[in-house]
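[SOLVED] Predicted holo structure with zinc ion

Edit: marking solved, answer below. Original request kept for reference. I posted the sequence and ligand SMILES and asked for the 3D complex as structure tokens.
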Amino acid sequence: MDNYLYKCQYCGKEFRPNRRNKQKFCSNSCRVGAFNLKKEKGLGLPVNEVEKKAPLKVEKMSFAGVGNAAVGTLAVNAITSLFTKEEDKVATKGDMKDLLANLKQRYQPVKNLANRPDGTKPFFDSHTQTIVYLTKSF
Ligand SMILES: [Zn+2]
């Protein structure tokens, strides 16, 4: 596995990889050099490319990893606040109206039955065809 040589993609020197994963450069300085060269050329690398070419493992974690996580959180927060701000108000208004209309339709107050001692009032539940006692009138 370690018997063949890699060619450094920065300086062109052949080298023996010291790790099992693929190495593209003979040394850290070549890796950084290639990375900086691309940056200087103004080649905007997509995030996963930057991650692949990140010189050190530690850097990969703190830089790309945290960066992605932060972006994800930001996006989620933005979406959440959007929904709570816009949808919630509209949804509550609309839903409450619908809900009340439904309840009004379903529960008809019964006039020849007395309220219960606990203050609940008799209603005819048109869905179950029974008398129910509710605290609210609609
Ligand atoms: Zn090199």
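OP edit: Residues 8, 10-11, 13, 25-27, 30 surround zinc ion (CB under 6 Å). Thanks to everyone who chimed in.
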